[in-house]
Structures are given as C-alpha cells and as structure tokens.
C-alpha cells in the first residue's frame, strides 16, 4: 500500500484522486473536497471478502484479465495467438497541473500503453489510450477501450435512441447487475446510437442528484458499456468497434483511441450541461470562429428540392435578404446529373443545363444583397448513375464479389483510395477557390455496409480519412464554415465539431418534434452549434401544421435559419419570418453565450427552456406547450440561475396570436409585466399562463437593479 502514491487533479468543482503504483486507479471522481491525501487513502481502500481472489482487485483505467479483473478488458489482442493477456506496469508518469500521462509497459507481450487523463477548469475529464507494438511480429488489436469508474450510488441511466427525423430521444432505466450496452455498427455517429449517456443517483433530474455524463468523440462504429460488477462496483467503458483484422500493428506502430469526455455534477443534468457547454465553447469549437455572430440561414432544400432555376433562386435570395437573412445556401440539386436522388453523386461539376451562366451571377447577387453564400456537398457518396462511377467503379467502399444494399440509392466512396481522396479534395477546393463561398453543408446520407479497403475491413480508417479530408479542406480554406449533416443528425459528436462549426440536428423541421430533439441535443451541445430552421407551416416530414409563433420560437433557440421558399409564402408568414429573425438577432448574443437551463415543470405537457447571461443581467425563457395541459391550472414558472439579490423586470416578448381569446383572463404579469427579485423568480416563481397544445411563449428577464 505504501509504495503507491496519490495524486489529485482538480477542476472548479470536481476532483479526481488517482492512486499510482504498478498501475493507475481512480479512487474518487466527484465533488471537490479539500483535505489530506493520506486520510483519503485510508478512507477509500476496500476490504477483501472471502470467497474470491485473496487480494484486492483494482478497477484500473484498462481492466486486465491477468490481474484478476473479471470485467471487460481494456486491451484485447494477440500476436499469432500469443501475448493475448497483457499486464501493464507503469514505467513513467508525467504530471502537469491539469493532466497526467501514464506510460506502462508489458515487457513480455512487447506492448506499451500510454494513458492520458485530463481534468480541465470546466470540470470536463478526458481520457484516451495509445497502444504501441514494441516487438517483432504483428499485434492484432481486437479491442482498446477507455474505462472510467462510477461509484456504487450511480444506479440510474439516461441513454439515447433515435432514428432518421427522430434524433436525440432519451430514455431512463435503472442500472442493475448486467449493466447496459449499446453498439453502433453503422459507420457514422448515427441517429440510432448517439455516443453518449448519463449515469446518476436515484431519480437524478435536471436540478438534483449526482450525475456523471459521458461522450465518446468518434464518428464511426462504437460500443458503450456501463457495467455493474458482481461485487457492486461499476464502470463506464467506451471503445471503437474494430472489425476483424482491421487493426494490425507492425513493430513500432501505434493505435490511439478517440477521446472519452466525461463530467460530474452534483447539481443534476443542468450542472453537467454547463460543464460540457463551456468545454465545447472553449476547447472543442474551432477557436477562430467562436466570436463571430452566427448568420441567419436561408436553405433552399425544402423550398425547391431539385428544381433549380437560377432566376428563381435569385428571387428567393432577394426575398431572403428583405426578411433579414444573412447567409443564403443552395442545397442539393446544383451539380451534374442531379435531378433527383437517384443519380449524380460524385459528379461535382456545376450542372450547366440548370446554370447556363454559371454560379457567379448568383453568388454575386447574394453578396450584393449583403448575404454570405453557401453550398451543399456530399463528398463521400456516389451514385452508380454518375460519370464518376462509370469511370471509377473500383472507388466504391465494398467487399469485392458481394452485392450490398443501397441507402438513398447511393454507395460510399473508399476514402482510403488516394486517387478518390485527392479527387474529392480537388473538387471541393475548386468550388471554394472559384466562388466566394463562406459555408458548406457537408452531408452523408447513408450508412456504411461494407467498409473494406483492398479486401480488408477498414471502417476505422474510413472514419479517419473523412476527418483528414475535412482537415485538408479546412487547412486550405480556413475561413469557410462547415455544417456537419448526415441525413439530419447522423454525424454529431465532439470529434466532428473540432473541425466543423454547426450541426444539422434533424431533417425534421416540425416544431413539436424539434422541441424534443433539441432538448436531447442540449445535454451535451450549446445552442449555437445546433442548426434550427423555421420550416413551412405544413411540415414536410410529419404533415403536421404549426403556427409561425410556435415554429419561430422553437427555431430561435439554436443557430437559426429558414428552410422554405420565401417567394411562395403569404405576406403574414413573411412578416412572421421577419419578426423571428429580428428577435433572434436581438437575443443572439445572449442565446449563443449564456447558460442553458432546462427548467423542471410540474406537468409533462410543458417544456421550459431558458438561457441566462453569464453576468446574470438578463435571461430569456421559452414556455412550450407540447400537449394539452393535464390540469386547468399549471403551477408556477420558476427560473433558476438569476442573481437572487437583484431585481428583474419580467416581460412577455412573444405569445400565440390567440393568447387572450382562449381563457377568461391570463396571469396579470403576462399582460403588463412585473418586477421581482431573482430569489423570488427561483423560489416562488410566476403563475403559468394557459396555452393551447403546440404553442409557445417567450419571456424576458432584465436586471434593473
Ligand atoms: C439530407 C439532408 C437534408 C438535405 C438533403 C439533400 O437529407 O439532411 O437537409 O440537404 O440531404 O439531399
């Protein structure tokens, strides 16, 4: 016991106590407590019961079977059937203020493992491993997992599920013996298995409970596991799923895992989100863009689909500028052979039949109107009905000799083929160098079924080549912003966000559905990276109809845009777009820098979402009525995060047009406003108004003294 040392890493609120001897073990990860490390050691060491191994077995950062850890190992592999149960011993430790890097060796197996562990000032932990083959012969790596411990009181989970047009759905479940596991084999981050989860104490909620949130930053196949060991200890593990034979390290070669990000809060889910949001803003997002106000988009997709006529598109741009739009984007349908979703992908040449005068007149028109110009691409994809496929059928990502199902009539290009990679870079570079393009939407509309290169499994490398392609484009065109889209929210994770600027959260622009999708996304991402558009009143993906007020307020709480054909809209709708664009511009500095609060409600039919400025001088709150209220009166709106000592002026900024007609009368504060202390707003609150299902209201809090 005594030849071990304890070190601690501390954030603002979080503490990691790590014991280092032959191996590293996290003894405590939770709320920061000051005190004597030796006392901590005495307090944290475990008893050893009868009926199992005679000594204590540690849950290290890479569980090892050879040390008697009967859990999912951190490293699994072999060298021609040998060296399959490595046991690593620490050889070197480098400690800095906020991180430790641990080098461990297994001299027999000829392997070195480097483990990085960091806790930053936003209370976000990140960890990853690098495994190196140090011996002659090929070391086949089956698994390399990141493992973090959870305390025994973490006994509930919030996990994610979803599908196309239904992303970021959350579900609660107890964490029992047997644990939880999710596997994603779709070759992209996926709609179905967003790579994150939250573990917490019984009944943890938005405001209460200890929670430990995890996000695995990888845009391909992954496995997440939360396991309860037979002795009651528990841990979270995240790893890339390596397909058979795909990681084979020659002597001297290494493989590095993606980063696993994690954060603890003892103030429930809101506290956890505050950590992740600050971390994303300060550390993940490309730094050169964080201060720029995010321009309001007009995206042509749901307005005209594949029906492109330059004159008409220019009239759309004119109308957009009149409404206050700041960036005009031509979506799918502009390139050769692309008249529907069955052909053309891969032929990244302007369709001269549709654009006989080229793209310049449109870009210039858009720029003259004071807007930026953006263009859609789906670089990794190919239709068999394309010149590219006819010339290079061998560029397909496929296992030769087998058929594979299409997705949206298309196939994936093998980015590991250098010629294909260079062709795609050249095409993107051509457009970005030729036209004044400020933004591209980088789409990926199908899943990966046969990720092979030269016959061998190559899913991991395909994802890395995708990162390299984006990086290469960014390096040459650092000012161009990129939106990551994959049929909506199929590629949303921290690793993509290091090289892109926003996400298309969903192809579903139905405001009611968006309320849930955006909420699910808000646990890990701040609002400014979430593309959120006002769609047509008759929603294309659900066929529901919603008022402009409900659509406007729902889109307000992200990076806002409009996605329809403004030319065809009626005057009342246009006035609505203009109104919400103005509102967004006014509130944008607050929305895109403040603290998000998901406010608990007494009735599930409501969803309340707030953003409070960092200096607590203002806040904006959206009350969304998702369904019929359960009772005729709905309790109180209580707003956390304001300065308890300060006085705030409360005013309604926006409400449904029928607001006063649906009841005898509404709460007086919603008519004439009122002044209240921050403490009152948090502790007692304001009587909830009565709203129809599928409508919303916006309330502003401004500090007056
Ligand atoms: C995907 C995207 C949409 C749109 C279409 C174009 O579905 O998610 O927003 O760009 O592709 O084909």
List the helices and strands and how they pair.
Layout lengths: L4 E6 L3 E7 L3 E8 L5 H8 L30 E4 L10 E8 L2 E8 L4 E9 L4 E10 L5 E12 L5 E8 L2 E9 L5 E5 L11 E5 L10 E6 L5 E7 L5 E7 L7 E2 L4 E3 L3 E6 L2 H17 L12 E3 L1 H4 L5 H14 L3 E4 L29 H9 L3 E6 L3 E3 L3 H5 L18 E3 L5 H17 L4 E4 L9 E2 L2 E2 L1 H18 L4 E4 L9 H4 L4 E3 L6 H12 L7 E6 L12 H9 L2 E5 L7 H21 L3 E5 L6 E7 L5 E8 L10 E2 L9 E8 L14 H4 L1 E4 H6 L2 E2 L7 E9 L2
Parallel strand pairs: 20-21, 20-31, 21-22, 22-25, 25-28, 28-29, 29-30, 30-31
Antiparallel strand pairs: 1-2, 2-3, 4-9, 5-6, 6-7, 7-8, 8-18, 8-19, 9-16, 9-17, 10-11, 10-13, 12-15, 13-14, 14-19, 15-16, 23-24, 26-27, 32-33, 33-34, 34-39, 35-38, 36-37, 36-39
Any overview of this molecule?
The mean pLDDT is 97. It is built from 14 helices and 39 strands. By secondary structure, the chain is an alpha+beta fold. It is globular, with a radius of gyration of 27 Å. Bound molecules: alpha-D-galactopyranose. Residues 301, 331-332, 376, 443, 445, 485, 487-488, 504, 507 line the site of alpha-D-galactopyranose.
């Amino acid at each position: 016991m005594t030849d071990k040392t304890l070190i601690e890493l501390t954030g603002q609120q979080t503490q990691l106590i790590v014991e280092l001897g032959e191996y590293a073990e996290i003894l405590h990860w939770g709320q920061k407590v000051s005190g004597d490390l030796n006392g901590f050691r005495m307090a944290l060491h475990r008893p050893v019961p009868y009926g199992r191994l005679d000594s204590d077995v540690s849950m290290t950062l890479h569980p090892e079977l050879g040390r008697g850890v009967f859990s999912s190992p951190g490293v699994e592999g072999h060298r021609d059937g040998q060296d399959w149960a490595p046991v690593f011993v620490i050889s070197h430790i480098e400690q800095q203020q906020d991180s430790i890097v641990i080098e461990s060796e297994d001299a027999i197996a000829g392997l070195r493992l480097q483990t990085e562990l960091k806790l930053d000032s936003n209370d976000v932990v990140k960890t990853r491993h690098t495994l190196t083959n140090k011996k002659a012969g090929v070391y086949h790596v089956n698994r390399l997992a990141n493992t973090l411990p959870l305390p025994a009181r973490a006994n509930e989970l919030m996990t994610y599920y979803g599908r196309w047009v239904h992303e970021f759905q959350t579900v609660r479940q107890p964490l029992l013996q047997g644990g939880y596991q999710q596997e994603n084999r779709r070759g992209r981050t996926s709609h179905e298995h967003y790579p994150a989860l939250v573990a917490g104490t019984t009944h943890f909620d938005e405001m209460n409970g200890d929670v430990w949130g995890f996000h695995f930053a990888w845009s391909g196949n992954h496995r997440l596991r939360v396991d309860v060991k037979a002795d009651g200890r528990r841990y979270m593990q995240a790893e890339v799923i390596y397909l058979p034979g795909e990681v084979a390290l020659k002597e001297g070669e290494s493989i590095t895992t993606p980063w696993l990000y994690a954060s603890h809060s003892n103030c429930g889910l809101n506290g956890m989100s505050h950590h992740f949001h600050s971390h994303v803003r300060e550390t993940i997002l490309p730094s050169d863009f964080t201060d720029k106000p995010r321009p309001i988009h007009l995206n042509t997709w749901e307005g005209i689909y594949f029906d492109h006529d330059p004159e008409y598109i220019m009239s759309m741009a004119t109308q957009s500028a009149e409404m206050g739009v700041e960036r005009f984007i031509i979506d799918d349908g502009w390139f050769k052979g692309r008249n529907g979703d069955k052909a053309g992908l891969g032929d990244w040449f302007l369709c001269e039949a549709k654009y006989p005068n080229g793209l310049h007149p449109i870009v210039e028109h858009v720029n003259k109107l004071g807007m930026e110009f953006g263009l859609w691409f789906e670089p990794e994809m190919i239709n068999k009905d394309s010149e590219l496929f006819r010339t290079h059928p061998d560029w397909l990502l496929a296992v030769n000799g087998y058929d594979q199902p299409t997705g949206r009539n298309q196939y994936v290009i093998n980015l590991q083929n250098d010629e294909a990679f260079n062709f795609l870079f050249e095409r993107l570079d051509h457009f970005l160098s030729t036209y004044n393009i400020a933004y591209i939407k980088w789409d990926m509309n199908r899943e990966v079924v046969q990720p092979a290169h030269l016959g061998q499994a190559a899913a991991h490398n395909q994802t890395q080549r995708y990162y390299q392609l984006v990086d290469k484009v960014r390096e040459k065109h650092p000012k161009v912003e990129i939106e990551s889209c994959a049929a909506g929210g199929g590629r949303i994770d921290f690793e993509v966000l290091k090289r892109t600027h926003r996400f298309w959260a969903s192809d579903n622009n139905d405001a009611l559905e968006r309320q849930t999708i955006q909420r699910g996304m808000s646990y890990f991402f701040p609002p400014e990276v979430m593309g959120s558009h006002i769609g047509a009143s008759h929603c294309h993906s659900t066929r529901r109809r919603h008022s402009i007020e409900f659509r406007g307020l729902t889109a307000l709480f992200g990076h806002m845009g409009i996605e329809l054909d403004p030319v065809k809209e009626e005057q009342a709708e246009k006035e609505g777009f203009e109104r919400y664009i103005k509102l967004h511009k006014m509130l944008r500095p607050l929305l895109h820098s403040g603290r998000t609060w998901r406010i608990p409600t007494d009735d599930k039919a409501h969803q309340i979402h707030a953003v409070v400025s960092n200096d607590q001088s203002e806040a904006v709150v959206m009350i969304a009525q998702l369904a019929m209220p359960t009772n005729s009166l709905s309790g109180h709106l209580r707003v956390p995060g304001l300065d308890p000592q300060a006085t705030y002026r409360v005013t309604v900024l926006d409400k449904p047009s029928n607001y006063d007609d649906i009841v005898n009368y509404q709460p007086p504060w919603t008519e004439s406003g009122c002044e209240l202390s921050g403490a009152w707003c948090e502790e007692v609150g304001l009587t909830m108004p009565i709203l129809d299902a599928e409508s919303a209201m916006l309330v502003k809090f401004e500090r007056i003294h």
